[in-house]
Design goal:
Chain lengths: 344, 673
């Protein structure tokens, strides 16, 4: 996984103060109520706020996971990002271009070529085969049959469904159907990849398998990703950065490590309570300075403590911590690991 | 993604109207009773609507029609030009279909397919839709038509359907798509669709007769108008039910509007749309039969003329031919609908013949049948000598029944007439129109608030205002008694069937088949045994409307949460207690909807029973049809529609309240006549 700090300087997608209100005359009312109206005043005006004053930046190549329970506005937010849902107010910049100012035709072109989306309930077209489903976005663009099928073939191979090109969706299992959905969303080679609770409709075991598959795929395709989930563990596993939403607003945004170690509110703490610290805290955070004799074993600075712990099983008291360039940046002591793991 | 506001309007607002109803009802009923008993002397105008204030609606409509026909001019063309244009658009495909099926094209020396060809083609279509079993069934149905000498009439009927169905489906699809795209359009057509589905068919036969003249073209137009509203509804519903994800997908991959409609939305809605197509086919058949009154010809005309001559044998035979045609068409279209839900096997071979085996087969069949017919006239026209006729048998049977059982049948009929029908009719006829309208308005207010009160009371007053109160009361009396009997039969049957899977399977097949039969067919056996009159009409109406009473009772009882039944059993309830306190209570909303459908079915049949001499609104419409008086027909038709709308809205509101009280989700299946 890439380091978000490297990309913070060049975000691909930026949202500024995005609002989505449902109800009559939403835009006028919001403008009249001032910059940050209280929820009660919105409700009094007959409006329901699905997204409230969201600021967000997604760096190039980053996996940004938006986490929230049902009704938190996360699905509406991701639809605002592609303007499937028209935001009431705010600014959405994609490579510096304000999408809210784009015409419907421009938006169509952006969606066709720059964005891909995976849906919770797969959204496969029942009358088309796997091949036709995957090739459909290219067909819509007007690509010729031979070249789109060739490209679809590659995508189907990429998600591990080679040989099933001529199956119909209802002949596939849930996991396989979502693989088709993933292949389809990648067919047009988008820059920005939206995944709206892609694994929520799957059984826990299959979900785990698909998460691994997703990590593998991302190592191949290297997309900029906005991933929606209501599962905090899934967020921890996959995210470079997590954005936690509640009642339409962002409660906290940060790396999994930051969120688990410093939950901003009691609400966030509820989620982090059950997460073992060792699975999110990275070695770099708990290592000591380089002093004394150099230990024989070593561990990358980006590994989690849980990953480093087994290396102490042979009785070593400390490990060398290696930076990205292979140089020793610190020493990891057995005591520090024990303290963190026992501390929860 | 659910719109957050949709959840906001809850049952709370409705529940407010519920409490403390008994004293209010007692007061209102007391007032109504007082008016009924002692009001005649004080306020005679509350009983007989004053003549001077009658709205001359029928004269206005008559004048408007004359104006349309004689004077209306849209600049480039007149109204008559427009109707002539429509007629010619329909006439050409009709002639083609009829020529191919039975008439041939003498002008270019081309013979029709002949009965062997048509039967073979039907079998081939059956095989494609549902394999060998369906092929056999369909072929048998068509062969039946030939063997029993109904071929020519049946082909005339079939030709009308072949023209009406594609037009009806296309028109309904277009309207439905427009309604889906523009909300204002959906809002605008909704009340029209409501009216079209409740107004009795006879009522718009009159204006069509005047605009398009007597003949098959007019019949096809009437069929279109009749069959299009359900298709429009089904289309809008099917498109609305396409999952949000699919819609988002279409936009996300950048579909154009056209791609969205034709590549994403319609294919995704296909399963539901096919149900609509099946409905269009069955409704078209029903209507083509009824439209024999305005010159559709075919099987309907055979039944109608037999009915007029009281020639039961011939009538019943034509009726059975309609049944055969109905079963074939229904099973075929249902099989196609089910196939739409299954994945297709990928086309195996190459080359046009291998890729389209059925198309190739159909062409080969037509050619072979043509050749065969040219060599052997018996393959062209079914030989007269081999025809079987059961007509005399049926006539003899009826004669025999009438000779041997006349007295007991007559006694039964008279007993019911004297003790039930006539007293109830007198009672209703004596009620003050003002009191009834007030009572309806009050019921509407209790069940659904001011809006419903206005609809129920207002429509009732309107019936009085156009001077049709007496006829309307006769309609209510016949409909009320028939519905009561249908419910008395349907409820126990439904309760029995709900627990017995075997019985239900058999019963469902029966009522499914009964429901595919055109309403005309129901008249025949009733008339045979009891001749004309209210009693006969009542029998036909009960037979026609019992199906929804059974179906909804079963569906309602089977839909009760099994955990609640289990809980009842765990508490030690007897079967009877479980039925009375748990299952029937929870199934009540569904049963109410069943009652609603039963009333709708009864009303649509009741109008047709005008043919056997009732004295109600249906008779008004029928007379208008024979006299070609559009004003009289439409006004009486609208009055029937008003009765239907009042009943529908009141019962729907009651069902919604029952559902809200039980905390059940809104909505339920609605089948339509």
């Amino acid at each position: 996984m890439s380091d978000p700090a490297l990309h913070a300087a060049q975000p691909l997608l930026v949202c500024r103060n995005v609002w989505k209100l449902f109800g009559p005359r939403a835009a006028e009312t919001l403008a009249a109520l001032g910059p940050d109206p209280a929820p009660e005043r919105l409700a009094a005006a007959g409006l329901v706020a699905a997204v409230r004053a969201v600021d967000l930046a997604v760096g190039e190549g980053e996996i940004c996971v938006i986490m929230g329970l049902s009704g938190s506005g996360k699905s509406t937010l991701v639809r605002c990002l592609s303007r499937l849902v028209e935001p009431t107010a705010g600014e959405i910049l994609f490579r510096g271009q304000n999408l809210l100012a784009a015409s419907e035709a421009e938006m169509t072109m952006i969606r066709r070529h720059k964005m891909g989306m995976v849906f919770q309930h797969f959204a496969l077209l029942p009358h088309m085969t796997v091949m036709q489903n995957v090739a459909f976005p290219l067909e819509v663009q007007g690509m010729g049959r031979a070249s789109r099928e060739e490209r679809a073939e590659r995508m189907i191979g990429l998600v591990g469904l080679a040989g099933r090109e001529h199956f119909y969706p209802r002949q596939l299992s849930g996991g396989q159907q979502q693989r088709v959905g993933i292949a389809r969303s990648l067919a047009a080679d988008p820059e920005l990849w939206f995944l709206d609770e892609p694994f929520s409709a799957l059984d826990p075991l299959i979900r785990r398998e698909m998460q691994d598959e997703f990590i593998r795929l991302q190592s191949v395709v290297r997309k900029t990703i906005v991933f929606i989930t209501h599962d905090f563990d899934e967020a921890i596993r996959l995210a470079d950065r997590i954005v936690i939403m509640k009642d339409g607003a962002v409660v906290q945004a940060g790396t999994p490590e930051e969120i688990v170690l410093n939950p901003a509110t009691a609400y966030v703490r509820e989620f982090t309570r059950a997460v073992p610290r060792s699975k999110v805290v990275r070695v770099a955070r708990v290592m000591g300075a380089v002093e004394g004799p150099a230990p024989s074993g070593s561990v990358p600075a980006r590994a989690t403590v849980a990953e480093a712990a087994p290396l102490f099983l042979d009785g070593a008291a400390a490990l060398r911590v290696l930076g990205d360039d292979g140089a020793t940046v610190g020493h990891l002591h057995r005591d520090a690991v024990v303290v963190l793991m026992l501390g929860g | 993604m659910a719109h957050p506001l949709e959840a906001a309007a809850g049952p709370a607002a409705r529940a407010r109207l519920g409490g403390g109803g008994l004293p209010a009802w007692a007061a209102v009923l007391g007032g109504f009773g007082a008016l009924w008993l002692w009001g005649r002397g004080v306020a005679p105008w509350a009983f007989d609507y004053p003549r001077a204030l009658v709205l001359p609606a029928r004269r206005w409509i008559g004048a408007a029609t004359r104006w349309l026909l004689n004077e209306a001019d849209f600049g480039l063309f007149t109204f008559t030009d427009a109707t002539r244009f429509i007629a010619s658009v329909i006439d050409l495909p009709y002639r083609l279909a009829l020529g191919a099926l039975s008439g041939g094209f003498p002008a270019i020396g081309l013979a029709p397919m002949g009965w062997v060809g048509v039967v073979a083609l039907a079998a081939l279509i059956g095989h494609r839709a549902g394999g060998l079993r369906l092929a056999t069934l369909v072929a048998a149905c068509f062969a039946f038509l030939a063997v029993f000498g109904q071929w020519t009439s049946a082909m005339v009927t079939l030709a009308s359907i072949l023209v009406a169905v594609p037009l009806g489906v296309a028109g309904g699809l277009a309207l439905g798509l427009a309604g889906h795209r523009w909300l204002w359009f959906a809002r605008a057509i909704e009340p029209i669709l409501d009216l079209m589905q409740t107004i009795p068919v006879f009522a718009y036969l009159v204006p069509i007769l005047i605009l398009f003249g007597f003949g098959p073209t007019a019949a096809v137009v009437a069929t279109l108008i009749y069959a299009m509203p359900p298709m429009t509804r089904v289309t809008m519903l099917a498109l609305a039910r396409v999952p949000d994800d699919i819609r988002d997908l279409g936009r996300m991959i950048g579909c154009t509007r056209r791609q969205m409609t034709w590549r994403v939305m319609l294919p995704s809605a296909k399963d539901r749309l096919m149900v609509g197509v099946n409905q269009v086919i069955m409704l078209s058949l029903n209507m083509v039969i009824i439209a024999s009154m305005i010159g559709a010809g075919g099987l309907g005309f055979d039944v109608l003329s037999a009915l007029r001559r009281l020639d039961f044998g011939t009538g019943l035979e034509a009726g059975l031919a309609i049944v055969a045609l109905a079963i074939a068409l229904d099973r075929l279209s249902q099989a196609f609908a089910e196939r739409a839900a299954l994945p297709l096997a990928p086309a195996a071979g190459r080359g046009p013949v291998a890729r389209h085996p059925y198309l190739a087969g159909a062409l080969a069949t037509i050619l072979a049948a043509g050749l065969l017919a040219a060599l052997m006239p018996a393959a062209q026209t079914y030989p007269e000598a081999l025809r079987v006729t059961t007509g005399p048998f049926w006539s003899d049977l009826v004669a025999w029944i009438n000779v041997n059982y006349f007295d007991s049948l007559e006694a039964m009929k008279n007993a019911l007439l004297l003790n039930l029908l006539i007293p109830f009719k007198r009672f209703l006829a004596g009620l003050p129109w003002l009191g009834v309208a007030g009572l309806l308005a009050f019921a509407g207010w209790r069940l659904g608030g001011a809006r419903l009160a206005l609809i129920a009371g207002g429509l009732a007053v309107l019936i009085a205002v156009v001077d049709l109160w007496e006829e309307a009361m006769v309609t209510v009396y016949l409909c009320g008694i028939s519905v009561a009997i249908a419910m008395l039969i349907g409820l126990p049957l439904g309760i029995l069937a709900a627990e017995r899977e075997g019985l239900w399977r058999w019963l469902r097949l029966t009522i499914d088949t009964l429901q595919t039969l055109p309403s005309f067919v129901y008249l025949m056996p009733a008339v045979m045994l009891f001749r004309v009159g209210d009693f006969t009409a009542m029998l036909a109406v009960v037979a026609y409307s019992v199906a929804p009473a059974i179906r909804y009772t079963v569906l309602g009882l089977q839909g009760v949460d099994p955990r609640l039944v289990e809980a009842g059993r765990a508490m030690g309830c007897t079967r009877r207690q479980i039925l009375m306190h748990i299952r029937l209570r929870l199934a009540l909303p569904e049963i109410l909807l069943g009652l609603n459908q039963t009333i709708m079915f009864a009303l649509s049949m009741l109008v047709i029973t005008a043919l056997v001499g009732t004295r109600d609104l249906g008779q008004e419409v029928y007379i208008a049809l024979t006299k070609a008086d559009p004003g009289r027909g439409l006004v009486a038709g609208l009055a029937v529609a008003f009765i239907a709308i009042i009943a529908d809205r009141l019962i729907q509101a009651a069902a919604a309240r029952a559902r809200a009280r039980l905390g059940l989700a809104a909505g339920g299946p609605r089948e339509h006549a």
